[in-house]
Fold each of these.
Amino acid sequence: MNPEKIRDILERYKAGGTTLPQALEELKGFPSLDLSFAQLDTQRELRVGYPEVVYCAGKSAEQLRGILEHLVKEGSEILATRATPAHFDAVRGLSPELRYDPVSRTITRRRQGQPDAPASYIAVVTAGTSDIPVAEEAAVTAETFGRRVERVFDVGVAGIHRLFHRLDLIRGARVVVAVAGMEGALPSVLGGLVEAPVIAVPTSVGYGASFQGLSALLTMLNSCAAGVSVVNIDNGFGAGYLAAKIDRMAS
């Protein structure tokens, strides 16, 4: 239930185009909808600006279909993260506009009539190629919610000259998402080079002593560069969502 749909129901009722019982029937699933296995937060877009996002890991294909069936009917943007091909096979028939991206592991649908992406953009930067799946989750998240994204991949500190070749593009971003595993140094480097806020994303990429991303997480949390904020290990979605909100609020 998005602001446009609420406004349409209220205006039709005010103009006499619908009765009170009909309006109440349309609002029946607001502010939440009980699916027994899930409680859909149909008021979320009104509160925070973006609709509820579906985390697919641990959900059966049937449960995901039940959730997305309602979201498709409501006409909102759809973003489902950590989705498998089996998840997509279960829901692809709900709408021809649903898309599955195997790299970011997302199922998406953009709302019809959504305005073009703004001139401002978010730079999503990775230290290595192995960090791309998490970076793509961040990028797809921001793009689903109408933001423009520029991707800069494989420019980590092991060959830092590669970063300098792309620095003008990164410096032009309103927000920078820096994705790195191993020792996780890239966000600190960027924090000392760019004016924009940097959202650091530690990944579980690395050998044994990286402790599945814990080493990168601690490096990022202990960054001496100001203006760097950190999300959880492999949480590309969290970084992309925050970057989208910053870019949107500054527009």
Amino acid sequence: MSDWVITAENLTKVYKMGEVEVHALRGLSLEIERGEVVSIMGPSGSGKSTLMNIIGCLDRPTSGAYILDGEAVSNLNDDQLASIRNRKVGFVFQSFNLLSRATAVYNVELPMRYAGVTRGRKERAREALEKVGLGDRLTHRPNELSGGQQQRVAIARALVNEPAILLADEPTGNLDTKSGEEIMHLLLNLNKERGTTLIIVTHDQDVAAQTGRSIRIRDGVVEAYR
């Protein structure tokens, strides 16, 4: 298997708004190695969100090739994209996106339910929560947890299916400084311990400075690497 977990070649994305065409990506290419920690930065309107949607299999490019963990996904239909997304991508969002009335362990079980896993779900969810330091919060609901604890639940949920990549969109954006530092420490430790490829979309220079490589997007292309 290739050392590249992500290969994107000449990606374009054109949105049609009436008679107007908006070119969000303009021949963007990049590669990300298995086990890397990468930050992706860029101003509003740079194409960063569009790129993230394609990397996360939430959307497909207008043209170009995208290979995720050895699978060509550029031309898959919606059902195929959903299957790849559930197997290959773990998502961590700024707003946590937890079910408010469900317990922590049930929230973590959700990706396994979508994947059709019927045996051992609760045990795997419990283990994932223990790995992020929430073994004593299994039956707590989101409103009974701090922001940092909610993000830990979200990280456990993202990792429970052992995805090829973990895609974190502003993971510290809704947290205070101390909680944000703890979440970054947790993410980086999980990368070291499990080798999970970690891709962080951020506007925070301090967060980007902690990643092994930073990719800056502007006007739909890669502007610079660090």
